[in-house]
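Design request, C-alpha cells follow.
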C-alpha cells in the first residue's frame, strides 16, 4: 500500500545524501529499511527533498534544493521540466559520466551470468549530438484546468506533463507540438481522459526526416473523427509546410497502448522519405525506426563490418523492421532474407529494397520461429542478425537460429538484461560472444543500445 500526501496535509521535507543510481538513472539512498528515490540527484550529493509518497519498501521524494553538487554534475543549463516528466533523468550529469554509467550498466547485466564474464565490453560509442537528436516522439495529449497539455505522463498517474520545447527533440517536432497545442485549444477538440475512458484525442506522434527536414504526423484518437482531424491537419500543414504526411490512428482500447489497429491517411504522402547514410528509406506511420539517425548509421555500419559477408554468402535479418540492417548487409551478400511480424514494416522494407536498387533481398511477414524452421529446409545463411524489442528473443527463436548454424550472429539490443539472458542461452547452443559495442543512442537518458558479435564455437 502506498501512502500519498493528502490535499492540505503539511509537506514533509528531509535531507538525504545520495548513495547511488539505479539502472533508470534515479538517485537512491537507504533509510530506515526503505529505499528513497529522487529524480535528478547524483551520487554524493546532499539534498533537501520533499516526500511525495511512502510505500512498504520505497519512498518517492522530489528534490527541492541541492545542498552540495557532485563532481559529475553538468554545468550545462538543464531542462526546467526534467524532474517532472522524467524522460531524461541523466540530463543533469556530465556526458562522460553518462557514458561510464551506461558501460557499467551493460557490464552489470553480463556479470549475472558466470559464462559471460570474459566478454570484452568496448567503450560506449558516444553520440555526436547530445541534444536535438530525437527524430520521433510519441506524446500523450491531456488537459488540466482548461489548458491543453502535450507531453509525457507523470509516473504512475494519468496526469500529462506538458514538455514545451523538449531539448532532446528535433526542432521540427517542437514546432509541430506548439502548433497542434494551439489549434486544439482554439478548436476546442475533446481531449481523451483515460480515467473516464472518454474523449477524442489521445496521442500525437511525430516522425521527422532530419536530412530533408520533413515531418509525418499521426493523431491517435479514441474513435474515427475525420472532420476534426482533417481540420487539424489542414491547419498544421498551413502553419508548418514541412509536414508532408498526416494520418489518423484509431485506438478504441482503454489501456495505455498507444497504437490501435486502424490507420487512415488524411493528407499528404502515405510514408515519410528518410535517409540514413547512403540508404534511402520510406517509413510508414506505424513502423518502428531508430530515433537517432547518427547512431543508427553507425550501428548499420558496425553490423555490416562484423558480418563480413561475401557475394557467395546469404544472411537472415530477424525483427528487420523497415529493412535498415538487412539492406546494408545486402550490399555485400548474395541474398538477404528479412523477417518481421508487422505487415506494414514488411511492405516498407520491400519498397526500400526497390528504392535502393537492391534486388537481392526478400522480406517475409510472420512469426520468426516458424519462418526460421521453414528456412532451415532450404537455406544455410552464413550470418544471422537479430534486433528484437526490449523483451529480447523468445527461447524457441534462439534455438531456431542455432539450428541454422550460421558462422556469425549479430545481436542488436536495446536492453542489457535481456541481451545477457539471450547470450547465456546462445552459449548453450554453441555461440560464443567475443565482443559487445555499447552505443549511446539516447543521450541524457539511462537507455543504452548494444551490438554483440557471436561466433559459432561447437562444444568439443
Amino acid at each position: 500500500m502506498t501512502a500519498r500526501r493528502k490535499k492540505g496535509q503539511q509537506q514533509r521535507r528531509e535531507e538525504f545524501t545520495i548513495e547511488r543510481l539505479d539502472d533508470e538513472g534515479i538517485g537512491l539512498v537507504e533509510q530506515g529499511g526503505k529505499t528513497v528515490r529522487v529524480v535528478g540527484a547524483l551520487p554524493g550529493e546532499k539534498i533537501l527533498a520533499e516526500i511525495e509518497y511512502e510505500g512498504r519498501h520505497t519512498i518517492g521524494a522530489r528534490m527541492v534544493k541541492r545542498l552540495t553538487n557532485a563532481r559529475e554534475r553538468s554545468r550545462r543549463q538543464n531542462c526546467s521540466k526534467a524532474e517532472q516528466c522524467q524522460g531524461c533523468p541523466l540530463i543533469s550529469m556530465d556526458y562522460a559520466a553518462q557514458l561510464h554509467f551506461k558501460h557499467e550498466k551493460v557490464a552489470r547485466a553480463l556479470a549475472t551470468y558466470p559464462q559471460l564474464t570474459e566478454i570484452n565490453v568496448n567503450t560506449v560509442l558516444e553520440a555526436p549530438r547530445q541534444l536535438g537528436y530525437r527524430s520521433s516522439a510519441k506524446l500523450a495529449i491531456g488537459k488540466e484546468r482548461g489548458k491543453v497539455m502535450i507531453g509525457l505522463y507523470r509516473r504512475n498517474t494519468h496526469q500529462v506533463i506538458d514538455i514545451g520545447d523538449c531539448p532532446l527533440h528535433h526542432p521540427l517536432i517542437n514546432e509541430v507540438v506548439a502548433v497542434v497545442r494551439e489549434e486544439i485549444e482554439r478548436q476546442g477538440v475533446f481531449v481523451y481522459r483515460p480515467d473516464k475512458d472518454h474523449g477524442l484525442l489521445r496521442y500525437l506522434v511525430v516522425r521527422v526526416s532530419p536530412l530533408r527536414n520533413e515531418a509525418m504526423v499521426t493523431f491517435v484518437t479514441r474513435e474515427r473523427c475525420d472532420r476534426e482531424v482533417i481540420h487539424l491537419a489542414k491547419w498544421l500543414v498551413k502553419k508548418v509546410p514541412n509536414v508532408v504526411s498526416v494520418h489518423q490512428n484509431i485506438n478504441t482500447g482503454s489501456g495505455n497502448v498507444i497504437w490501435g489497429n486502424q490507420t487512415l491517411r488524411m493528407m499528404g504522402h502515405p510514408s515519410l522519405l528518410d535517409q540514413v547514410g547512403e540508404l534511402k528509406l520510406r517509413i510508414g506511420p506505424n513502423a518502428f525506426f531508430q530515433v537517432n539517425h547518427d547512431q543508427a548509421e553507425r550501428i548499420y555500419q558496425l553490423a555490416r563490418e562484423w558480418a563480413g559477408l561475401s557475394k557467395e554468402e546469404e544472411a537472415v535479418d530477424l525483427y528487420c523492421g523497415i529493412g535498415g540492417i538487412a539492406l546494408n548487409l545486402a550490399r555485400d551478400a548474395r541474398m538477404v532474407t528479412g523477417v518481421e511480424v508487422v505487415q506494414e514494416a514488411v511492405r516498407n522494407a520491400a519498397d526500400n529494397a526497390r528504392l535502393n536498387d537492391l534486388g537481392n533481398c526478400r522480406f517475409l511477414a510472420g512469426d520468426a520461429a516458424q519462418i526460421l524452421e521453414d528456412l532451415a529446409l532450404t537455406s544455410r545463411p552464413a550470418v544471422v542478425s537479430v534486433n528484437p524489442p526490449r523483451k529480447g528473443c523468445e527461447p524457441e527463436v534462439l534455438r531456431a537460429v542455432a539450428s541454422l548454424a550460421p558462422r556469425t550472429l549479430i545481436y542488436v539490443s536495446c536492453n542489457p538484461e535481456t541481451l545477457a539472458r539471450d547470450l547465456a542461452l546462445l552459449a548453450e547452443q554453441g555461440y560464443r560472444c567475443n565482443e559487445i559495442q555499447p552505443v549511446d543512442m539516447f543521450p541524457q537518458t539511462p537507455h543504452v543500445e548494444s551490438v554483440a558479435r557471436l561466433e559459432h564455437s561447437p562444444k568439443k
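Comment from the thread starter after seeing the answer: thanks! The chain has ten helices and 24 strands.
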